[in-house]
Amino acid sequence: MNADNRFNPDGLVLSASYADTMNGVVLPELARRCVGTTVSGFGGRPLACVQYAAENPRGTVLVLHGFTENAFKFSEIIHSLLRNGFSVLAYDQRGHGRSWRREGLPDMSLTHVDDFEEYVKDLEIVCGRLLAGMPGPHFVFAHSMGGAVASLFLERHADVFAGAVLCAPMIAPNTYGISAALVGLVCRGAKLLGQGARRPSVSRPYSGPEDFETSCATGRERFDWYDRVKFERPEYQNSNPSYGWTLEAIGVTKKLLAPGAPERIACPVRLYGADNDGSVLAGPQEAFIGRVRNGTRTVVKGSKHEIYRSADEVLFPWWREVLAFLGA
């Protein structure tokens, strides 16, 4: 099959040949165009960053991944952005992928942060050291936890991004029927006992291939491809949170919805909620975007939390909307 026949008009991969196209076309193309670098983030912690230069760029998109993810997981999205004339900057947030992880964690699958503000300070540093030198205008595409980080950044910095796409952002995490106050109390107690960087007893380390049916994706071929990558690469095996990360995630809602905070966001924001999202809550998303001066929220029908890993019939029209918002 001709390589061009493996893609839709926006450069997304058709599911019929997904793994072959990703491995044989997309990844080699990205590798040829990738400039990898390490930036010293907050506290001097190394962050693994990647930059891609588009031909005749119409701007740059910073891609910010979510909880237990990494920049590599967004390879298909990055490929499409490049094909549509956008240079791309992405990085693994601290505790994820190839970036710094706190010493002493029991295994690579545990995800921990001492203070959520560290993610925001890392983003400030990456923008200042790398994004500022890339072609404008600058946009951010941020998923889940990355959406929370980007939103806090947008509330504090009105002059960096010309627009923002928030993909199922974690304005508030789902605590699965247990009150956030109770979860916070348990996590705070664990932290006081010196167990903040430990995993709750109800979670287990990564143990191999995951289950599509209980995953956050609806595109089987997209799920299978990355599931194999994750199985083969220990640095990508983030799977569950520490007590400390959970406590910080619960606390981010109050910061994001603080009096006057969303109102300070100056750029247009397009927030996309998933139709069937078990990871983050819809109500806080609505409360947040309703206070952004130029913000809209759209529910993507037929999607789960990872909208960008939906089946073709859901992914393709949604991504066309995103590209149109970016000016493609």
- Terminal CA distance reads 27 Å
Strand content: 15-25%
Count every beta strand, where a strand is a DSSP E run of 2 or more residues.
Answer: 10
So how many helices? 9
Summarize the structure in words.
The structure is a single chain. The strands form two sheets. Strands 1-2-4-3-6-7-9-10 form an eight-stranded mixed β-sheet, sandwiched between helices. Strands 5-8 form a two-stranded parallel ribbon. The model has no long low-confidence stretch (mean pLDDT 97). It has one domain: Alpha/Beta hydrolase fold, catalytic domain (Rossmann fold). α2 links the parallel β3 and β4. By secondary structure, the chain is of the alpha/beta class. The protein starts with 17 loop residues before the first helix and ends with a helix. The chain is 34% helix and 18% strand. The longest helix has 16 residues. The protein is globular, with a radius of gyration of 19 Å.
State the main characteristics.
alpha/beta; single chain; 328 residues; eight-stranded mixed beta sheet; globular; Rossmann fold
Which helices and strands, and how do they pair?
Layout: H1 18-33, E1 34-40, E2 46-52, E3 59-64, H2 75-83, E4 86-91, E5 110-111, H3 117-129, E6 138-143, H4 145-156, E7 163-167, H5 180-192, H6 220-232, E8 240-241, H7 243-256, E9 269-276, H8 282-289, E10 295-304, H9 312-326
Parallel strand pairs: 3-4, 3-6, 5-8, 6-7, 7-9, 9-10
Antiparallel strand pairs: 1-2, 2-4
What would you say about this model in short?
This protein has about 325 residues and is of the alpha/beta class. The protein is built from nine helices and ten strands.
